[in-house]
């Protein structure tokens, strides 16, 4: 009963091209979404977020798009760099008991080739 | 400022033994979370402390898992007795505030548990 789904376990992209990582969710109560990035042997680190009242949020090379009707969000990285190679986790928050604890997906491993 | 620190980084134990994982959150962070990731799967929520109180422990798998946060500073997660399916990486995270727009959690590097 995964509420946050990242159906692509891996993605391989050429340096300089666009990387698009996808995430689907099932819980219509989710109202805040985040992307985390994780390097091997490290903990996840926050990358970018978006509120459900927006459909796009941009931060440098990273843009997150939210399609609420489709319960889908995506992370675009342009241009991709070898240092972007990592596992990317999609996460979502809902006001369960007021605590807003993030629910994570399985992650997508991005490999950016030089 | 020190980040979230976890100890040990890796623990290998036999089935039936006990293991205690420790997490030191960022100083001043009242909120402390434990998550677990089994290989290739999602980072799954275990529980949430606000200071020394358990705010939400709905993700704890069973009563073999015991989390404490005495004094509202560091936290421990004890697994007793450990089973094979407990293997995975246990992440601790902390945050200053909660809420929808509270921003990110700060994660530690994780404690990898291998149960043989």
Structural summary, described in words:
The complex is a heterodimer of chains A (114) and B (116). Chain A is an all-beta fold. Chain A has one domain: Immunoglobulins (Immunoglobulin-like, Sandwich). Chain A contains no helices and eleven strands. Chain A has strands at 4-5, 10-14, 19-25, 32-38, 45-51, 56-59, 62-67, 72-77, 86-93, 103-104, 108-113. In chain A, the strands form two sheets. In chain A, strands 2, 4, 5, 9, 10 and 11 form a six-stranded mixed sheet that branches. A five-stranded antiparallel sheet of chain A has the order 1-3-8-7-6, with no helix packed on it. In chain A, strand 7 and strand 8 (72-77) form a beta hairpin. The termini of chain A are far apart. By secondary structure, chain B is mainly β. Chain B has a single domain (5-115), classed as Sandwich (Immunoglobulin-like), CATH 2.60.40. In chain B, the strands form two sheets. In chain B, strands 2, 4, 5, 6, 9, 10 and 11 form a seven-stranded mixed sheet that branches. A four-stranded antiparallel sheet of chain B has the order 1-3-8-7, with no helix packed on it. In chain B, a hairpin with a 6-residue loop joins strand 7 (65-68) and strand 8. Chain B is globular and about 40 Å long. Chain B starts with a strand and ends with a strand. At the A-B interface, strand 4, strand 5 and strand 10 of A face strand 5 and strand 10 of B.
CA-atom Rg of chain A in angstroms: 14 Å
User: Structural class per helix/strand content of chain A?
Assistant: mainly beta
Helix content of chain B: under 10%
The CATH superfamily name of chain A is Immunoglobulins
Figure out the total of helices of chain A: 0
What does the average pLDDT of chain B come to? 92
- How many strand elements of chain B? 11
Q: How far apart are the termini of chain B?
A: 37 Å
Into which percentage range does the β-strand content of chain B fall? over 45%
Question: For the record, what CATH class of chain A applies?
Answer: Mainly Beta
What characteristic shape of chain B results from the CA principal axes? globular
CATH fold call of chain B: Immunoglobulin-like
Number of strands of chain A: 11
How would you describe the oligomerization state of the chains in this entry?
Answer: heterodimer
Q: Which sequence of SSEs, written as H and E, runs from N to C of chain A?
A: EEEEEEEEEEE
CATH class of chain B: Mainly Beta
What is the helix content of chain A? Answer: under 10%
Low-confidence regions of chain A? none
- Named at the architecture level, the CATH assignment of chain B is Sandwich
């Amino acid at each position: 009963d995964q509420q946050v789904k990242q159906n692509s376990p891996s993605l391989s992209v050429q340096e300089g091209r666009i990387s698009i990582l996808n995430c689907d969710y099932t819980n219509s109560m989710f109202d805040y979404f985040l992307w985390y990035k994780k390097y091997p042997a490290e903990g996840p680190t926050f990358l970018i977020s978006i509120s459900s009242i927006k459909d796009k949020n941009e931060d440098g090379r990273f843009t997150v798009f939210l399609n609420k009707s489709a319960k889908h969000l995506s992370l675009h990285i342009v241009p991709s760099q070898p240092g972007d190679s990592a596992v990317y986790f999609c996460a979502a928050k809902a006001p369960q008991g007021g605590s807003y604890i993030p629910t994570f997906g399985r992650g997508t491993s991005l490999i950016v080739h030089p | 400022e020190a980040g979230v620190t976890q100890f040990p980084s890796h623990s290998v134990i036999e089935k039936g033994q006990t293991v205690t994982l420790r997490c030191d959150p960022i100083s001043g962070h009242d909120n402390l979370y434990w998550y677990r990731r089994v290989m290739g799967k999602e980072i799954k929520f275990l529980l949430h402390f606000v200071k020394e109180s358990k705010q939400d422990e709905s993700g704890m798998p069973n009563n073999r898992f015991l989390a404490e946060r005495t004094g509202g500073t560091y936290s421990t997660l004890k697994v007793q007795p450990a089973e094979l399916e407990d293997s995975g990486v246990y992440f601790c995270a902390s945050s200053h505030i909660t809420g929808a727009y509270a921003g990110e959690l700060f994660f530690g590097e994780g404690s990898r548990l291998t149960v043989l």
